[in-house]
């Protein structure tokens, strides 16, 4: 397992997806069970130490996770507190434990880290600002590596092509020179102006929209779009590697203006994501190459180049999840 990514937080589910029943997710090839008790949300390795059953096909009862095979009950710290086959009062072996992982809820998502978190889940101001409404989109299960998905999110020059008719237009493809800066350990682009269809305009005129893209963590990125007249849209993207060629991605939008009917807004965002997925699922090699000579980059790709260099510097070894 990648020694760097093991210490990253990954968004694995929407909070609303975890109700009474435990849920299985896969993080870097590892099966994980997520469940909720009166104490909050918890994540364990999805494996009962007794006979290897998946705990995720069990139940949650009296704040314990009950294995479906022989009914062992694990409390939220992973300790086995009941073995039904034993005589009442018999001591429970100390080794009867579930492996626990750190787990938190933030931005309407459940985040899990398999190791020791290298950094907190990113704190992003607009998400705490009451002037913004937030909306969670996904899961997007994509047959592509998480790093390819994040790089696509950080890419400027595809917007007019892949999303033509939806977001922009090929006539406006030219990207002015921009810089990429390191700010508090993150990668942040200068402002980049993209001509986009105006949300509020029934004639959908193209207007200049100011973009700033940021790589927060190796597989968590952020985008701020300023439409003018104080209208701001933020998108947080978090991608969780299932394996080297499959990922699950969520986005959280924060908007300080009325985006219209929310189901329509959601449908447009899903459609935009589907357009990206067609590209992502057909890229070769499947994993993002960190060797800068492997593909041909231009000035307009500066953020992608910076992202690849940054991943290599962080010690991420793609292809080893
Ligand atoms: Fe879980 Fe036996 S396998 S209780
Ligand atoms: Co796109």
TrEMBL record:
<dbReference type="InterPro" id="IPR044043">
    <property type="entry name" value="VanA_C_cat"/>
</dbReference>
<dbReference type="InterPro" id="IPR017941">
    <property type="entry name" value="Rieske_2Fe-2S"/>
</dbReference>
<dbReference type="GO" id="GO:0005506">
    <property type="term" value="F:iron ion binding"/>
</dbReference>
<dbReference type="GO" id="GO:0051537">
    <property type="term" value="F:2 iron, 2 sulfur cluster binding"/>
</dbReference>
<keyword id="KW-0408">Iron</keyword>
<dbReference type="Pfam" id="PF19112">
    <property type="entry name" value="VanA_C"/>
</dbReference>
<dbReference type="GO" id="GO:0004497">
    <property type="term" value="F:monooxygenase activity"/>
</dbReference>
<feature type="domain" description="Rieske">
    <location>
        <begin position="9"/>
        <end position="112"/>
    </location>
</feature>
<dbReference type="InterPro" id="IPR015881">
    <property type="entry name" value="ARHD_Rieske_2Fe_2S"/>
</dbReference>
<keyword id="KW-0001">2Fe-2S</keyword>
<dbReference type="GO" id="GO:0051213">
    <property type="term" value="F:dioxygenase activity"/>
</dbReference>
<keyword id="KW-0223">Dioxygenase</keyword>
<protein>
    <submittedName>
        <fullName>Aromatic ring-hydroxylating dioxygenase subunit alpha</fullName>
    </submittedName>
</protein>
<dbReference type="GO" id="GO:0016705">
    <property type="term" value="F:oxidoreductase activity, acting on paired donors, with incorporation or reduction of molecular oxygen"/>
</dbReference>
<keyword id="KW-0479">Metal-binding</keyword>
<dbReference type="InterPro" id="IPR050584">
    <property type="entry name" value="Cholesterol_7-desaturase"/>
</dbReference>
<keyword id="KW-0411">Iron-sulfur</keyword>
<dbReference type="InterPro" id="IPR036922">
    <property type="entry name" value="Rieske_2Fe-2S_sf"/>
</dbReference>
<keyword id="KW-0560">Oxidoreductase</keyword>
<dbReference type="Pfam" id="PF00355">
    <property type="entry name" value="Rieske"/>
</dbReference>
């Amino acid at each position: 397992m990648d020694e760097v990514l093991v210490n990253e937080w990954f968004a694995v589910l929407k909070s609303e997806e975890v109700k009474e029943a435990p849920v299985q997710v896969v993080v870097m090839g590892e099966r994980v069970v997520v469940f909720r008790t009166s104490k909050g949300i918890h994540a364990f390795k999805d494996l009962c130490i007794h006979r290897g059953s998946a705990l995720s096909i069990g139940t949650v009862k009296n704040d314990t996770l009950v294995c479906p095979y022989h009914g062992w009950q694990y409390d939220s710290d992973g300790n086995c507190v009941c073995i039904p086959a034993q005589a009442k009062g018999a001591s429970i072996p100390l080794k009867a434990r579930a492996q626990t992982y750190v787990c938190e809820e933030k931005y309407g998502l459940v985040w899990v880290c398999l190791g020791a978190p290298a950094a907190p889940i990113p704190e992003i101001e607009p998400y705490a600002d009451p002037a913004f409404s937030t909306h969670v989109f996904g899961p997007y299960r994509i047959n592509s590596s998480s790093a390819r998905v994040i790089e696509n999110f950080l890419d400027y020059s595809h917007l007019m092509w892949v999303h033509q008719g939806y977001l922009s237009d090929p006539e406006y493809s030219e990207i002015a020179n921009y810089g990429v800066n390191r700010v508090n350990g993150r990668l942040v682009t200068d402002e980049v102006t993209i001509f986009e269809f105006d949300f509020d305009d029934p004639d959908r005129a193209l207007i200049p929209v100011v973009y700033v893209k940021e790589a927060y963590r190796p597989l968590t990125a952020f985008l701020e779009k300023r439409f003018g007249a104080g209208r701001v849209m933020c998108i947080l993207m978090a991608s969780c590697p299932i394996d080297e060629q499959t990922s699950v991605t969520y986005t959280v939008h924060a908007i300080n203006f009325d985006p219209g009917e929310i189901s329509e807004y959601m449908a447009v965002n899903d459609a935009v994501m589907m357009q990206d997925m067609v590209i992502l699922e057909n890229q070769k090699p499947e994993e993002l190459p960190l060797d800068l000579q492997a593909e041909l980059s231009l000035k307009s790709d500066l953020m992608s180049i910076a992202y690849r260099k940054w991943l290599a510097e962080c010690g991420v070894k793609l292809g080893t999840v």
